[in-house]
Write a structure and sequence with these properties.
Structural class: alpha+beta
Distance between the termini: 14 Å
Number of domains: 1
CATH topology: Nucleoside Triphosphate Pyrophosphohydrolase
InterPro entries: CoAse, NUDIX_hydrolase-like_dom_sf, NUDIX_hydrolase_dom
Number of strands: 11
Largest sheet: 8 strands, mixed
GO molecular function: coenzyme A diphosphatase activity; metal ion binding
Helix content: 10-25%
Organism: Glacieibacterium frigidum
Keywords: Hydrolase, Magnesium, Manganese, Metal-binding
Cofactor: Mn(2+); Mg(2+)
Shape: globular
Length: about 200
């Protein structure tokens, strides 16, 4: 099975299997909650052993400073939907040429505790692209083994207090890079779709 065929098995946007950065169980969306639409690019690098492109956000950002994340952000009025937004954000953040991305599709919407409804866009990119971190948003970019981050054995459930409540969330330790929150939850969702 090709990488594209494998990823295509996970496409088709549905209501979020997880809601909030911390949740680990299915939930009923709150129709009264106002969310900001956003999109991220889950860029899989087409190597013999595929890797996943991730970023570490700069420390000076107001939100999610220093966190590991997919390239992405809010959907702007000029964007032609979530795919266009994810590609635009990836170009702005890591200089990824949108023409170099083979878009496979989208997967489960993800609602964060910070008020975003995120559409994950699955894409395949070739190795060796001249990528560069935009220092205004991204401290560094790096690759992790795709199969490693999808392996449920590497999905650690943890608890922590946030806004006065105990929350549960996932952490994936990938070569010294701690992936958690929405990014880890979207990888857990993707892993379950591909299982």
């Amino acid at each position: 099975m090709s990488l594209a065929e494998r990823l295509r098995a996970a496409t088709g946007t549905t209501r979020a299997a997880y809601g909030g950065d911390w949740a680990v169980a299915a939930h009923a969306p709150d129709p009264a909650r106002v969310l900001t639409d956003a999109a991220v690019l889950i860029a899989v690098i087409d190597r013999p052993a595929p890797t996943l492109l991730l970023t570490r956000r700069t420390q000076h950002l107001r939100r999610h400073a220093g966190q590991v994340a997919f390239p992405g952000g809010r959907i702007d009025p000029g964007d032609d939907g979530p795919v266009a937004a994810a590609l635009r954000e990836a170009q702005e953040e890591v200089a990824l040429d949108p023409g170099a991305v083979t878009v496979v599709g989208t997967t489960d919407l993800y609602e964060t505790g910070t008020g975003y409804s995120i559409t994950p866009v699955l894409g395949i990119i070739p190795p060796g692209l001249p990528l560069a971190a935009n220092p205004a948003e991204v401290d560094t970019l790096f690759e992790v083994p795709f199969d490693y981050v999808l392996d449920p054995a590497n999905h650690q459930a943890r608890t922590g207090e946030w806004q006065g409540r105990e929350r549960r969330f996932y952490v994936i330790d990938a070569g010294g890079h701690e992936i958690w929150g929405a990014t880890a939850a979207m990888l857990v969702n993707l892993s379950r779709r591909l299982a």
